[in-house]
Design a protein that fits this description.
Layout (H helix, E strand, L loop, with lengths): L34 H12 L9 E2 L8 H4 L17 E7 L15 H9 L7 H11 L4 E4 L6 H15 L4 E5 L3 H13 L7 E3 L6 H10 L2 E4 L1 H8 L7 H5 L1 E6 L7 H20 L5 E6 L5 H9 L4 E3 L9 E6 L3 E6 L5 E3 L2 H14 L4 E5 L2 H16 L9 E4 L5 H13 L4 E4 L14 E5 L5 H8 L9 E6 L4 H8 L2 H4 L13 H14 L4 H6 L4 H12 L4 E3 L2 E3 L20 E6 L5 E6 L3 H4 L5 E4 L2 E9 L4 E6 L5 E21 L2 E20 L5 E6 L5 E12 L1 H6 L7 H15 L11 E6 L9 E6 L7 H7 L1 H14 L24 H17 L5
Parallel strand pairs: 1-2, 3-8, 3-9, 4-6, 4-7, 5-6, 7-8, 10-17, 13-15, 13-16, 14-15, 16-17, 20-24
Antiparallel strand pairs: 2-10, 11-12, 18-19, 20-21, 22-23, 23-24, 25-26, 26-27, 26-28, 28-30, 29-30
Amino acid sequence: MRDQPIGWPGDGPVLVEGPPDPVVPASGPVRRSARGLELLGRVLAGSGVDPDVPVVELGAGGTLPPELAEDPEDPEGFDPAEATNPLRHAVRLPPRPGRAVDWPAWAPPEVVGAFRRTGVSRPWSHQAEGAELAHAGRDVVVATGTASGKSLVYQLPVLSRLTAEPRATALYLSPTKALAADQLRALRELGLSDVRPAALDGDTPMDERDWARRHARWIFSNPDMLHRSVLPRHGRWAGFLRRLAFVVVDECHTYRGVFGSHVALLLRRLLRIARRYGARPTIVLASATVARPAEFACRLTGREVTAVTEDGSPSAGRTVALWEPPLLLELNGENGAPVRRPASTESSRMLADLVVEGARTLAFVRSRRGAEVTALGAQRLVADVDPDLVPRISAYRGGYLPEERRALESALMRGELLGVATTNALELGVDIAGLDAVVVAGFPGTRASFWQQAGRAGRAADEALVVLVARDDPMDTYLVHHPRALLGAPVESCVLDPGNPYVLAPQLVCAAAEMPLTEQDVAEVFGGAVAEEVLAELVDDGVLRRRPTGWFWPTTREQPAASVDIRGSGLGQVALVEAGTGRMLGTVDGASAPGTAHPGAVYLHRGESYVVDELDLDAGVALVHQEEPDWRTDARSNSDVEIVAVRARSDHGPVSVCFGDVRVTSQVVGYQRRTPDGTVLETVPLEMPAQTLETRSVWYTIDETVLADAGIDPSRVPGALHAAEHAAIGLLPLFAICDRWDIGGLSTALHPDTGLPTVFVHDGHPGGAGLAERGHAVLERWLRATREAIRDCGCRTGCPSCVQSPKCGNGNNPLDKAGAVRVLDLVIGALVRHPGTG
């Protein structure tokens, strides 16, 4: 199967993400509009840049033009002109017509009529293909662009079954409550009687939960409720599970890493219980376009799954601008590094400009704090132009209380909000495709997420604008200088590992508590030999009991699911509570709390600043007070890596590459107070508890004599390795769907376990999430991209855009940018010249 160029459906299966597809009516051609270019001109004018810029267009078949197909030459030092011209590339993605087909003959007239009443005259080709497979009982995953109508792929067969079989039931699972609520709303708008849909999530009152259990035929829920409420009490849900005909898994590409591994085992638990009641539901999965979607869906569900990847929906055109904020020559950052204008500042200004222009705009920001800062900045800017626009700009993020989220979603749907700064909570949440513009403040970590976010923009007749604003990050630097890596590359693979013992053990305990595990369950459902080893340890530890008929949970008085965190570290959530009033403001993950909710940390909520007074990890509470400091805080931590076991090793002359098990000990040791432009005001020491992580890592060693021969004397080795490690961590998400915060690293001129200069990059989750393993598999490509990111950065000696890290425990010292390029040249050269042995 061949990979196809971005942005144009070909004859074969589409394995890469095209420009996300807004819904365009089947009647009427896709018209070209200059709206996207007009909005880009407005953004450029707001930056004081000539708005008359050249825009490259993709060629026939979506091919990249020559100027985007090759890497630029090595820059000869810093070019001051680039400091003031932030637009690196502008590319217009052409519109694409849709391919509509007839409704399938098996669809009941009342179901077809309901869709027609909501404006769906005929389905697109991929919708009909996926629905046909699901109707025939085939498990299917549909992997097409944003707003391509994936919902109809499961709605049509599910509603047809519920209409034909009055006792049949269905279960819908989504990663966010907002998405499930939106899908439930859309289903109710169809007006079909006797479907009896209902929500089941953490916000559902108890009386409504009871009604759903007794009467609902299509339940809209999430993995958390399935894990904590339904499966542990499956006897109460026997009627629903006995008649279960379909399980819908929406936005399944989000189930990756440790969370994805938990969900994979959770789905196996569900199917096992359903089988106990005599049901074998058909599974329908919906995904953004990912590499090898059928293979991923099989790993997620444990079943054979057929993929539908050729998108038949139409697409309006988009102008995609790649934007690198200029260097602020008058400012210096940490260790004298040059400082770029923050992506949040650029995005605030763009959001304000676009709102003033009347353009409905979303600004996607990487962090909760960033969403608040971006919305506040835009409000301040529009206040000087039109104060009436201030209340039409807001932030939206996770951590808000349910009633706050619902109010914002309602205002967004009614059009009362014109500009919204949001985290990825709206990437997968409310269906709001058809906006005029999307500003992506910092690459969201994966191409799939970028196109999901970009797909929120684009109307039937008007082309839209999408701007990627680079953060001070090696990945962002690489992408804005190499548009082919974003616009012409295959999307990433989703990585998950259901065999991770740190995930498998608690899931097996939950399964045994639901129903004793048999040898057949272990062999056919939970992974065979790996599961047997984990079960043996659980029996030895007294957690489970072994009987001739299987493995048993020893008590019926309590359920283990309540103590198993499927979304993160296993440390649960820490509540942010206002000390003076007792009001809960929001939550943070327990694993990240030492770095984000430590004493002295600044926490933003709905535009108001709070400072943390006390953090109690055992109680899961951080006490805060309201304050408006003119600084922000960034935590600093130290770590050590111990090699536990080597799983793979290859020798390449002076370079050796390994993959294996490691033990990482880390501790938050302080935090920095910084001004909004990044200037360090103060470094404050902290004594937070040390945390130990058993995980997996890829590492390489280099012979000291080769480093010396390359002109890197011993005094420069620590800085060169340190800079190469930082940049490599920043670039790994280019090859595996993850975030740089999901991984960590260590570099040292003399590691005690190797006796050589060594660079580690390890997973940030217990047992590993497959990320370091993926890095090991693509090491040469990964390190080449790392070298290019460092080389392309306009700074002289290193900055956050290339080799500085926002989470460095050593304060980004020492760092040697030129030395890092030489180190990477040595490693890449050794990989090429010396075939691996070992």
